[in-house]
Amino acid sequence: MLTIGDLSRATGVKIPTIRYYEQMGLMAAAERSGGNQRRYESHDRERLSFIKHARDLGFTIEAIRELLELSAHPDRPCVDADEIAVRQLQSVRNKIAKLRLLEKELDRMTSRNHDDQVKHCYVLRSLANHDMCVSEH
Amino acid sequence: MLTIGDLSRATGVKIPTIRYYEQMGLMAAAERSGGNQRRYESHDRERLSFIKHARDLGFTIEAIRELLELSAHPDRPCVDADEIAVRQLQSVRNKIAKLRLLEKELDRMTSRNHDDQVKHCYVLRSLANHDMCVSEH
DNA sequence: CATAATAGCTATAGATACTGGAGGAACACA
DNA sequence: TGTGTTCCTCCAGTATCTATAGCTATTATG
Ligand SMILES: [Zn+2]
Ligand SMILES: [Zn+2]
Ligand SMILES: [Zn+2]
Ligand SMILES: [Zn+2]
């Protein structure tokens, strides 16, 4: 039997976050002690570790809900789970592509000499004028 | 004189967002028509374009507030503005680095044959077990 | 001028995924 | 029994919008 604090230390998920996951239905409502405190078992720890790992990889709560639901049916085909992961990979690649464009512009803006006054500042002039940018973003 | 709709079309910023920026103090409270509708001038359009451009580049509202404040003093040195931009560049590079790690793991997870059942699914097994990952994240 | 269509107003709530605090109760240990 | 740590619920706040409801103003047409 684990307290919520034990579970938190075991998984690295903060206590309010565990309660939040319960509220969101990702974790089942825990059993309670006589004094109304949550008590967990090892399968709860495994489930929460799964959730944390997926969150660390950027899956949304909704995606995780689906992945957990799928995990409950070991004999079904896993195409749905694979598709969710592929979508997540695409979303990550999209974000990287967008951030690369931003990096390029910010690098350009900041790579000039800046021993200057506000009225001549290349950073501020670039922000005021998107035409100075080399890409869409 | 521009209505809020004109300003929205001219800058690509949605109407509720313009009102939100006013509430946040990024845009000055607009003058009003007899019937209490907001009326803008071209300097408002320039200011809002600046805000939009900076938001598109990922600057926070707080950073933009500082940049706008700096812009109001043309004769001061611009080191503060440059520093804000450099910090933003670093933040973007940080995000890219983290996303690359996620991309690597997600690519590994999804690059197997998946003609399979849930109980053998490499995606689900990987999510259940961080030891299968090749990096921290 | 009357009416209709379009556009604007405020106030409030929702999305996303948590995080923190107040005020009080329970638990573990000596 | 006392003490210190942990836990409880409820509520508010973070960041940046976005959307709805219910109402009013402006503009265009006949
Ligand atoms: Zn500068
Ligand atoms: Zn630009
Ligand atoms: Zn699979
Ligand atoms: Zn991992």
UniProtKB/TrEMBL annotation, chains A, B:
GO terms for molecular function: DNA binding; DNA-binding transcription factor activity. SUPFAM superfamilies: Putative DNA-binding domain. Signal peptide: none annotated. Residues 1-70 form the HTH merR-type domain. Coiled coil: none annotated. Pfam families: MerR, MerR-DNA-bind. SMART domains: HTH_MERR (SM00422). Keywords: DNA-binding, Plasmid, Transcription, Transcription regulation. Transmembrane segments: none annotated. This is Transcriptional regulator, MerR family.
